[in-house]
C-alpha cells in the first residue's frame, strides 16, 4: 500500500474488518437470517422467555425451513448444501436473537438430521430428511440421561433384539425439541455396542414430557424422553455406525455451531451496552465518556471479535475437511466462556437496568449458563485439549 492510499473508515460494528473475509453469498445469507430474526423473534422473545414457552415453534420451524436454515450444511434430500461458514453465520444471527432459537436449529440440523444423513439408510434419508429440511417435521436427539451426561458410554438405555425387532427401554434427559418432535434419534446400548435408532414420535411406549421450571433457555422446548418397551423394526437402526463414534461425531458438528452462536449472544449484549453507555448520564455526562466504562467496552470488543475470527477460522477448516474435534473443543471452550464474561460485563454497564427483560443482556447471560455445559462441559473440553497437548488421557 502506498503512503498516499486512503484507508477505509473505522467501523465500530466490525473493527477488524472481518466482513472482508466473507463473499457476497455469505453476506446475503447472514443478512437474510438477521432480518428474519429481527422480524419474527426479537419483538416477542422477551415475552416468550418470561412465560417460559416457545408457542410458535412449529410455525417458526417451517419458516426456518423456508430460509434453508435446517440442516443447511447438508447436501441433497432438500437440504441447502451451504458452507460451514454460512451455517456458522446463521447460528450467530439466530443466537443474537436467543439461544433457544439457535438450539432449535442446531438440534434439528446438526444432531437429528446430521445423524440420519451420515449414518442412516437410504430409506431413512428419503423418509425424514426432506420433511425435516422443510420444517414440516421437528427432530430431537436422545443421548444425555438423568445419570449420565459427560459419560455417555455408561448409558442405561438399552435395546435388545426380539426376533427381527428391537425393543428399547430407558430414559433420556434435557432433550431440546423433545415434546414437539415428530422423530427422535435415540442412542442405546446393545450387545454389539452403542447403536442409534430412528424412533417416530407416535410409537407405542414412547413419550416426551416437557421439562418446566427452567431458569435458562426458557424460550425453548426441553423434554425428557421415556422409552417403555418401545418396539421397532430392524429397519429402525442406523446401519452405518456402531459405538460412541456415532453420537460424538454428531455432537462435534453441533458444537461447531455453538462456537459461532455464542458470539451472537455476546454481540447482542455488547451492542446493548454500547448504546446504553452513550445515552445514560451520570455526573453530568454519558457514562460512555468515563475511562472505566471505555476500558470495559474495549475489552469486550477485543474478546468478541477474536471469538468471531476463531469461529471463522474453524469454519474454513471445516469447509476444507481439516477440522479436528480437538479444534472444535478449543472453539467451544473459549467462545462460550468469553461470551458469558461479555454478558456479565455488559450487565455492569447497564446497572440495575441490566436485569430487566427490556434489555437482552440478562436473558443472554442466563441462556449461556446452559450453553456452557451442554454439548460438553468446560471440564470435558479442557480434558480433550489436555489429552491432545500431553498425549495423556486424564478422563478416568
TrEMBL record:
GO terms for biological process: fatty acid beta-oxidation using acyl-CoA dehydrogenase; fatty-acyl-CoA biosynthetic process. SUPFAM superfamilies: Acyl-CoA dehydrogenase C-terminal domain-like, Acyl-CoA dehydrogenase NM domain-like. It comes from the Bacteria. Its cofactor is FAD. Transmembrane segments: none annotated. Residues 140-230 form the Acyl-CoA oxidase/dehydrogenase middle domain. Gene3D superfamilies: Acyl-CoA dehydrogenase/oxidase, N-terminal domain, Butyryl-CoA Dehydrogenase, subunit A, domain 2, Butyryl-CoA Dehydrogenase, subunit A, domain 3. This is Acyl-CoA dehydrogenase. It comes from Streptomyces misionensis.
